[in-house]
Amino acid sequence: MWTLLAIAALPLLAPVAHGKTSAQLCRGTAAEADDGNWYCSEVSTITYKNISQPGTYNRTTGVDPSTGLCAHQPISYSGRGSLTPLLGELSMHLRGPMNISKIAIYTLSASASNVESERSDILPERSQRTGRQAQAAPLGQLLSRRRAQPSTTSRPSHYSASIEANPQHFNTRWFKKSDSGICSTQLQPVTITETVYLPETACECIASTANENTTILATDPYSTGCPTSSEPTVSLAISRPTVAARAVGWNRIASYTSAAPAEATGIVFLANLGDERKSGTFDYAFGNSLSYVSPDGGRVASDPGPFAGTLQTSEVEMAAFSDKACNGDCEYSRPKSTQYHGWDGESKAFFIEFQMDHYDNVGNDQGMLSDAPAWWFLNAAIPRTLQYGNDRNNIPCSCWSTGCGEFDAFEVLGKGEERAKSTIHRQGNLEGGDSNYFQRPVGRRMKFGVIFTNLNITATVIDDSFNFPPTLDQGTIDKLIAYDSNSNAHSLFRIGS
Description:
Blueprint: E1 20-21, H1 22-26, E2 31-32, E3 38-39, E4 45-49, E5 55-64, E6 69-77, E7 90-95, E8 98-108, H2 110-117, E9 128-134, E10 143-146, E11 162-165, E12 171-177, E13 197-198, H3 204-207, E14 244-245, E15 249-257, E16 263-265, E17 267-271, E18 282-283, E19 287-288, E20 291-293, E21 300-301, E22 310-311, E23 317-322, E24 348-355, E25 374-379, H4 381-385, E26 406-412, E27 419-425, E28 432-439, E29 446-453, E30 456-462, E31 471-473, H5 474-481, E32 490-494
Parallel strand pairs: 1-32, 4-32, 13-14
Antiparallel strand pairs: 2-3, 4-30, 5-6, 7-23, 7-25, 8-15, 8-22, 8-24, 9-12, 10-11, 15-16, 15-31, 17-20, 17-23, 18-19, 20-21, 24-29, 25-26, 26-27, 27-28, 29-30
């Protein structure tokens, strides 16, 4: 593990380009569906720009089945680091009907992720101007899952979720590129106490400001050269220790294939089916905890096992975590539940191949959404505590309701709908959802990716030639997230200012 004490002036910046804003793509195309959800234009990529802002939420500190009460502690976050929603540990969630062929999860190698994680928030985006304009519902409709309530009179098998529209509107922000380059106001020299490995590309605009006693490696893999504007440049002085260059790569840390025999590496599949006789726990105050799950996702299991790859209906949900079990080192988890770490870090990428054919629910619960598959991510503390349900005072047990983080990457919101939407949920903090949509893959497989990098989230349809390799170079990631200002297929939805 690399220790980086200060390298604030070596930012990894997104490619200097911009695509169509969500508002532009919705202009003249917005329409309300019969189920109350708004849809605009079909796209292949959506980028949520700048998810790094300070905020607060209530972290769960206790779940007491004897009293039926949950305890919480308010915390604040800076907009960087593991406490910030979506930048810390995430769990991955799947709802049928869905056939999953492959999954692969990548993180940026330590050489670059350490640099990026310490990027200074004081470096302004000189190349862009921000604006604000209130939007109507189709440009930013927030959606929320209705939490199923545990029964206190009969033993529930599991809880599922349906979607309902939130009529609340909010302001959508977007920005426009200017002609100036990217550089910051001058900073005081900083010191690094250990060697830090950085990408090989160097920007001479930073190095040129150093004195003869300074060892400099200015690295911006997205830079096309030094800024030409007259704005002040960054002066970075790194004392004595040498900063070495090494190629940046994204390493696959987890993978899954459903091809017989199904195989998972670095992934554990769980579900809200806890039963103390096998795995996890159950009580009448809070229902089922997370547990190991059978290959079809429908029954509790005693041990982790392979997922068969099919979730038959929307009644079946499954959660995926890393294979690193919690050993007193996770954020608070419900006692006796099956507990694993999620995937941490500001730079991580999730790729999946799935198919979402039409199948109705087979049970008698008429309140559950039917034929509405979804792929989404949660702050891993949410399912480890209680994904669905409130305490006896009707206060949600998890941190979800106070904004600790959810990203719906590909979610069908209405029964039988063939349009999938995306949304960031951070209640009480900056959040938003794009009403431009992805086409549901019916009768065919689709490769799809979600990339968290540069404090943005990009959800994108992937070319069929993508083969989930052991490593990805930075150039491949850059191409996946790059904006095309002449394309109507990439929507840009700004979260932060």
